[in-house]
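Subject: sequence -> structure tokens, single chain

Hey, anyone have a minute? Need the predicted structure for the following. Not urgent.
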Amino acid sequence: MIEFETRTKAPQATTDSKQSRIVNGKSEQRLYGENMIDNTLSIYPRVLLRAGSCYGSRCNMAVSRGTQKAFISVLVVALFVAMPADSTADDWSQTALANAKAFSETLDTAAVVIMQNGNVVDQWGDVSLPLNCHSTRKSILSALFGPHVEAGTIELDATLKELGINDCEPSLTDEERTATIRDLLKARSGIYHPALYETASMAAKRPLRGSHKPNTFWYYNNWDFNASCTIFENLTGRSIFEEFESRFAGPLGMQDFQRERDTRYVTGDDSVHPAYPFRMSARDMAKFGQLMLQGGKWQEEQLVPESWVRESTQSYSNAGPSGGYGYMWWVGVDGVHFPGVTLPEGTYSARGSRGQYLVIIPEWNIVVCHRVNSSEDGMKVSRSEFARLLAMILEARPEKNES
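Reply:
Had a minute. Here:
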């Protein structure tokens, strides 16, 4: 399990410094290409020890123990030098990272975690403090759907009528109940019933009931997201919070998540479908981002089907200046994802009110997690402010330094 430390400066290289890395969920020391980890950290030490034993005992009994150790050390150093290394924190521009951190301190940023190739490149703020995830919870629910879709427990093309899904008065029309689970995940249900836990701006933008047929129009719709959770729980027989704890929090070794403390349902008179807020720390959310970056695989276990990661993070709708929208994930399209930042194809993100962002950039093997403490009055980081911070962070990456 990778351990995050709260620090304000990337560690300087020393003769005994250690870098932390998640490789398919395993914490490793030293940094190598993904396909070399197991050989480097498992096979080669045993080979070297055997070589040293042979050198000292079988091949030359007169060689001292100290000489054996020196021989092994030379082999280890030669092997490490010969093998290509992934980028580490020291490869990033420390000046550019310091500038990014200084800029974030002018905002209401509570915590930032930056990772590349599974390494914690830098982090600042209280990365261990559980904060309201707001709408990033929807992307978590999307990921939880994957294993059950693959197992056949959930059929994405089942209609709300088939599933027995309705709502309080004014209840759903026959046409609205032709919407499918897939339509809800894409926010294309055409159901504009009042919903719980939505912002005033979301409610103000809600189209009129019956104005669009299912799967003909995209509207970022809390009714779709809340009803998706109801459907998930009905079909799996598990609460979203129990499923998250057993499928993600436990296997990923999340350090700060406590289900009873950090989860709750929000109910009300407007709808029978509750919202499902989470609290999660920046370092735990970054681990979830790393899981997605690794195609849903952690250690040797495929927690989320790789095919689902691909399917759910494709764009199915034009989301304007945010690019596109997948299955409850925001998706970059033609470099468009955040204002003023050009990102490679395949980039996607989870986003939440007041400045919660989890950005995943597979092309560069980068995860960036940004949190705001929304429990404090007035705390907010706008999309344009975060975009500027993200641009400054990405200016520090090794590829920029080499150009």
